[in-house]
Amino acid sequence: MKYDLGDSLTKAYLVESKEILNELKTDYNGLSEEESEIRLEKEGLNKLDEANKTSLIMKFVKELTNPMIIILIIASIVSGITAAYANESFADVFIIFIVVIINGILGVYQENKSEKAIEALQSMTSSTCKVIRNNKQGTIKSEELVIGDIVLLEAGDIIPADGRIIESASLKIEEAALTGESVAVTKHSQVLQLSKEEKDISLGDRKNMVYMGSSVVYGRGKVVITATGMDTEMGKIANVLSNTKDSQTPLQIKLSQLSKILTILVIGICVFIFLFSIGKAYPNLGSKVFIDTFMVAVSLAVAAIPEGLAAVVTIVLAIGVTNMSKKNAIIRKLTAVETLGCAQVICSDKTGTLTQNKMTVVKSYSYDENILSKAMALCSDAVLDEESKKAVGEPTECALVNYAYKLNLNKNDLIKIQPRVEELPFDSGRKMMTTIHKYNDIYIQYTKGAPDILLKRCNKILINNKIEDLTEDIKKEIIKENKNMANKALRVLCCAFRYYDEIPKIINSDTLENNLIFLGLTGMIDPVREEAVSSIRECKDAGIRPIMITGDHKDTAIAIALELGIIKNEKEAITGSMLNEMNNNEFENNIEKYSVYARVQPEHKVRIVNTWKKKGKISAMTGDGVNDAPAIKNADIGVGMGITGTDVTKNVSDMVLADDNFATIVYAVKEGRRIYDNIRKSIQFLLSSNLSEVIAIFFATLIGFVILKPVHLLWINLITDCFPALALGTEKAEEDIMKRKPRSSKESIFAGGVSVDIIWQGFMIAIITIIAYVVGHYMESGIWEFVNSPDGMTMAFLTMSMAEIFHSFNLRSRKHSIFTIKNQNKFLWGAMIVSLLLTLAVIYIPFLSNAFGLEEISFIEYIVSILMAFTVIPIVELVKYFQRKK
Asked: Which of 93, 355, 524, 785 has the fewest C-beta atoms lying within 10 Å of its C-beta?
């Protein structure tokens, strides 16, 4: 919980530490054991609430409530009724139920894992911490920590709860997971002051506070705990996660709408035909007529329901997921694949996503770079790992040690030649650090610090290995170079040195850090990923707007964004405090002006993502820190980083980038667009096929003959149609796919003339099938008439099956001629061969043909059926030609 300090004292960083101690009824000696037990009973454990878990059974039941799955279940019931009435095999029932079960298992496995986010948050908190109680230092479990406890911190510790610093000695805290800032923050115990323009101080600027989940990288400190458990900043993030509902993806919404339409259509057709047939047979009503009429309605229901649609969509998505995983894009939710395909805005965290999350020296100013880099490396506490040849320690100091190593100066070797004998640790007050090293018979002092401070302590300069006076002209040149580096958002450090014949007797700033010899400046920054520049350019070509959101300072954010090409000028950048000044309506009206957000807090990220969504844009959010998790979960699709990302971020994301590479997002967008295109092709294929069945059955019912039985329709829908539909899902992307603008999330799955194509193509196949029935009866009897005919039914079955298979080739491209497609779809050819063989088996294997009520037709009848089925290709090619002309 959070201690009630009253309205005027709720912000501990604005209050003197002594006043906080008084308000919390504690002191430097800590709480008594008795008081801590009372507070623990009242406040509860210092831990995050666990997420409510749903059992596997309930998850599976939830999957079965999906409209497409309900349709499959209805189809299985219909199939069962058909089989029972006709005394036929229940194989179709089993087939459909297997599809239902597989689909449900895939859904449970891939989705609904967000409860792991809170568990991951819990794992970030330390298991034990050092406290002072009864004026004695001891170690307790972090979950037993209470408000008012005095906690001791040192390098390597994980902050167990939020607290106000009461003592600090060169304390530096890594807060990247909360604020997104890549540089460790120097902390102190002084009270903070608000400027006239500020209403509050952002999380990243609260230099006298520490927060749960952060880590100590340097120095030591003493803090009084001000908030525990769910009232910590980490707890607030956990609360947002637990209260955020998963929204449906555009594809889920469209398929749900399609399911409802199909359900209404099925019910309407069945009721109409049932009443029509009853009315037609009214004078001769009897049980047989009633059952026959019911079975006609059942046939129409089977014809109208695309039994394989849900399975086809799931499997096409699964194939896409497999392909994407090979390219380091790990999809956690199947339906999220296509959402990337219509992404219009990608909100990306800067640190570790667009940049390397590694401070690097990129510029220097010195008359002897080797001496400068040697001095910088020695005047630091970072060490060089001999195996990886990478520095370990505080990020800024690591950058200096790595800088020296690039110049073939190994710190481990340097320290052997010049061992450290004395030091003045870095202090936020004087903004400098000094070390003294023994070199042969002399002692060398190296001092590094802020240029504006250290330059004032220098009166000499090293030029070409000679010590000369530091003139005003040279000072002006140094100040100008410092300003040039700062204008590029570089973090600038100055370095100087001094010789001694013996170790100084008094080691303090006044005696050591004066009359220094200027060595040079180094400018460092967290550099951009090289591949991110081209990736952002590709995003823009694809009509996707990249947005950078960071906890870093505005100048740094602008410099990085300009280098990446995200913005063209600094007017496109805004800070979190500026954002606070806008109400929701103002921000919604101005959001399109900004592409960079600096110095933001977690709630800002959620607000940005939600405002883009409110504007009707499909938004993606990438990130790696805990601070990104709420926004990632709120976004239409959340993208977590696999290497630098926290478990929290990964568990709430829809997709994880295994290589933390922004370029992988571009590939994922392309793949998402391709998959959506292919799903539309599959849907068009399946619905035009089912419509042809409905039209054929409807026509036959009105005339008074049976063209196909329910078992025939089930076979066509589940076997003949499913294989080609799946094969269409493997089609390669069209060449201009990344030059198109993102489609609107409101765009119907039938947009672009798909609905019209489904209708006329359905009529086309139905007419060909009806003609095949009549031809079959004529070839059997020599009479042109519409009556029940075994040969006619078999030819209709064969023609419809093969016409739909040939039609799948038409849909390799909705507008272009299939004869202009350079690549071949081997899976579609395979699907055609498999479907052809299975259809032949049903007709020519006696026990199967008997089960299906089909006749063994002659070779001539077989060839006629195939030729009639093939006519769908030239007909569609002709229509496409006129569509292109139009």
From this structure: 785
